[in-house]
Amino acid sequence: MVYFAAVNDNHYNDFIECYGAHFEPELLNEIKLKGVYHSYPAQTVILDYGDKINAMPLLTDGAIKILRQDKNGDELALYYLERGDTCSMTITSCMQEKKSVIRAIAETDVQFISIPLDNNKKWIQQYNSWLQFVFESYNHRFDELLNSVDELAFDNMGERLKKYLKDLVLIKKTKSLDISHQDIAYDMHSSRVVISRLLKKLENENVIQLKRNKIEFLEL
């Protein structure tokens, strides 16, 4: 069930575990007062293309998949947000008051605290720790996107698929992945036929074991 609420002591304690070392006490107190707690079940669309962005998320539990759509309507998975992360593309749209150019889907059950647009702008000027956190988030995502470009340009599809599966294992914290070949094809901007062939090759190499809509990862 989707749930929104003011930040209570339990939410705040979880937040401190993730972000307490980043921010000074005054800013932490403001986050408790101004932030909004969110909870989403797995597979929920949290943010969609064209949505107005009024806040940025600070993830305290779970994982969120960030997708981008091309002019033909095909989607590519850009990156995942995990505990302790925020979304740099959301920050950009929020600061410029633009509509969303991404789709964010809860990969697992998700909890986060959102920071309203006005507070985000104010804190960048008021708190050096907040400014540093925003820029570090940009740099981290930029490095990830550069790695993705390198993979597309230089790595073969088999290696990209293997890395994709490893990332899912780490994010979901299980070697048993409930995912269809078509879902993988969507995320990797490929075809189901190609993905199925590559998965079979990985199975023959004893990297994975294929089951109906499930993949058992045997090697890390």
What features would you describe in this structure?
With 220 residues, the protein is an alpha+beta fold. It has two domains: 3-152, Jelly Rolls (Sandwich); 156-217, Arc Repressor Mutant, subunit A (Orthogonal Bundle). It is built from eight helices and eleven strands. It has a four-stranded antiparallel β-sheet. A four-stranded antiparallel β-sheet has the order 3-7-5-6. A hairpin with a 5-residue loop joins β5 (63-69) and β6. α4 packs across α5 (128-154), α6 crosses α8 and α7 crosses α8. It is elongated, with a radius of gyration of 19 Å. It starts with a strand and ends with a strand. The mean pLDDT is 87.
Tally of helical runs: 8
Tell me what the CATH architecture of the largest domain is. Answer: Sandwich
CATH topology of the largest domain: Jelly Rolls
Any idea how many domains?
Answer: 2
Order of helices and strands: EHHEEEEEHEEHHHEHHEE
Radius of gyration: 19 Å
Distance between the termini: 34 Å
Average pLDDT figure: 87
Strand fraction: 25-35%
User: Which sequence of strands runs across the widest sheet?
Assistant: 1-2-8-4
CATH class placement of the largest domain: Mainly Beta
CATH superfamily of the largest domain: Jelly Rolls
User: What does the overall shape look like?
Assistant: elongated
* Unreliable spans: none
Main beta-sheet strand count, sense and barrel state: 4 strands, antiparallel
> What helical percentage do the residues reach?
40-55%
Quantity of strands, as a count: 11
Judged by helices, strands and strand pairing, the structural class is alpha+beta
